[in-house]
Amino acid sequence: MLPRMSDRIYIRDLALRCIIGVYPDERRDKQDVVINVVLEADLAPAAASDQLADTVDYKLLKKKILALVETSAFNLIETLADRITRLALEDRRVRCATVTVDKPGALRFARSVAVEVTRGR
After folding, report:
1. All structural domains of the chain
2. Cα 100 from Cα 96, distance rounded (Å)
């Protein structure tokens, strides 16, 4: 039995804007979303070699997330979170990705509404 992997890369509080929501007033202008990503991968090879080629390039992933989010027009934050996990899993070293999408101001009297999805291979 293999030991449970505990190596993680975090992208925290990525603040972007996109069209998101089902109501007409939500679809007129871009809204703020805050994205958090947790990637589970074996980081031992990178730690040993000290080479970017041996790890997940989180800057490249951030650029892909930015391109997806800022050109998207999803109805649901659930869909947006799912699409971001798919981007993360394009790198075969990522075994599991957890993505949280916060939509600040979505509900009156609440700081934000968030959805978290986890996908793995």
Report:
1. 8-120 (3.30.1130.10)
2. 14
What pLDDT sits at residue 91?
98
Say whether 59 sits in a helix, a strand or coil.
helix
Rounded average pLDDT per 10-residue block, the chain, 121 residues: 76 98 94 98 97 98 98 97 98 98 94 97 90
Structural contact between residues 88 and 117, judged by C-beta atoms closer than 8 angstroms: no
Contact 115, 101 (CB under 8 A): yes
Query: Which entry of 30, 59, 63, 103 is annotated as an active-site residue?
Result: 103
Both tokens assigned to 16 = 């972007």
- Is 62 part of the annotated catalytic residue set? no
